[in-house]
């Protein structure tokens, strides 16, 4: 399980040093992908494959919806193996999608990690703090 938040910076070559507590689980390879709310997601390869199986459940193979889903799911992703220092490269198109500068937030969300622009992350958390504070099982209404 991926939990906790860290505040790393991209180096001059746009590499992220993965938080030390996650490196062992990610050493075998990662998939770096665009995610909702304009953040990036870091998955283990196994979790990424499981996610694809889950989101395509019920989508008819061969339809335009299925083809577009595959294009968005696989096309803009990047699979990598972290280097010996636990670094991964964040490409320009992925940085642009998530509006990333040098300062980042990396947060665990259970099955994977998310990479955020700090301002965007703060706005999301502020916008949803009351809903989370009043959350009750069965009544999910977080925006």
Structure explained in plain terms:
- The protein is α+β, with helices and mostly antiparallel strands and 143 residues long.
- It has a single domain, classed as Chemotaxis protein chec (3-Layer(aba) Sandwich), CATH 3.40.1550.
- The protein is 36% helix and 20% strand.
- It has helices at 20-26, 45-55, 64-74, 92-97, 118-133, and strands spanning 5-6, 15-17, 30-34, 40-44, 78-80, 87-89, 105-108, 113-116.
- The strands form two sheets. A six-stranded antiparallel beta sheet has the order 1-7-8-4-3-5.
- A hairpin with a 5-residue loop joins β3 and β4 (40-44).
- The longest helix has 16 residues, at 118-133.
- It starts with a strand and ends in a 10-residue tail after the last helix.
List the helices and strands and how they pair.
Layout (H helix, E strand, L loop, with lengths): L4 E2 L8 E3 L2 H7 L3 E5 L5 E5 H11 L8 H11 L3 E3 L6 E3 L2 H6 L7 E4 L4 E4 L1 H16 L10
Antiparallel strand pairs: 1-7, 2-6, 3-4, 3-5, 4-8, 7-8
């Amino acid at each position: 399980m991926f939990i906790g938040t860290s505040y790393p910076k991209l180096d001059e070559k746009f590499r992220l040093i993965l938080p030390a507590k996650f490196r062992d689980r990610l050493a075998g390879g990662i998939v770096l992908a665009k995610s909702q709310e304009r953040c990036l997601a870091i998955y283990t390869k196994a979790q990424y494959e499981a996610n694809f199986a889950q989101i395509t459940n019920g989508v008819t193979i061969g339809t335009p919806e299925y083809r577009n889903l595959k294009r968005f799911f696989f096309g803009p992703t990047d699979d990598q193996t972290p280097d010996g220092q636990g670094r991964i490269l964040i490409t320009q198109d992925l940085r642009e999608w998530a509006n990333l500068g040098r300062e980042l937030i990396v947060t665990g969300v259970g099955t994977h990690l998310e990479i955020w622009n700090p301002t965007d992350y703060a706005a999301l958390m502020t916008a949803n703090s009351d809903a989370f504070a009043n959350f009750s099982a069965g009544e999910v209404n977080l925006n």
